[in-house]
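Below is how a single chain appears once it has passed through the pipeline. First comes the sequence as given, then the structure the pipeline wrote out for it. We keep one example in the README because the format questions we get most often are answered faster by looking than by reading.
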Amino acid sequence: MIRKGFIMSVYPDCHEEYEKRHNEIWPEMVEMLRAHGAHSYSIFLEPATSKLFGYLEIADEALWSKSAETAICRKWWDYMGDIMETNPDNSPVVTELVEVFHLD
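Resulting structure:
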């Protein structure tokens, strides 16, 4: 299993809306994530800085990378684009983290 950690940013006045949208995640989005190998996916918010920490386990990096090409992923990005920092294509601005320690 490959563990991935990353940082994103939500706008300070959108914390509740970000959580609401994820609590109501579309079933087809969940299906796509699982179909592309996602396991144990969590996102945490640091309210003071509006930083989001994402943690995800995947089985295959190549399969996971194809998730960004799906229509449902693009639709989700468009849906979330008004409440978080995004790139010109509405994908979230993501900083990948390097794992430096793990304990099973």
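Residues 2-97 form a domain with the Alpha-Beta Plaits fold (CATH 3.30.70.100).

See the next section for the split statistics.
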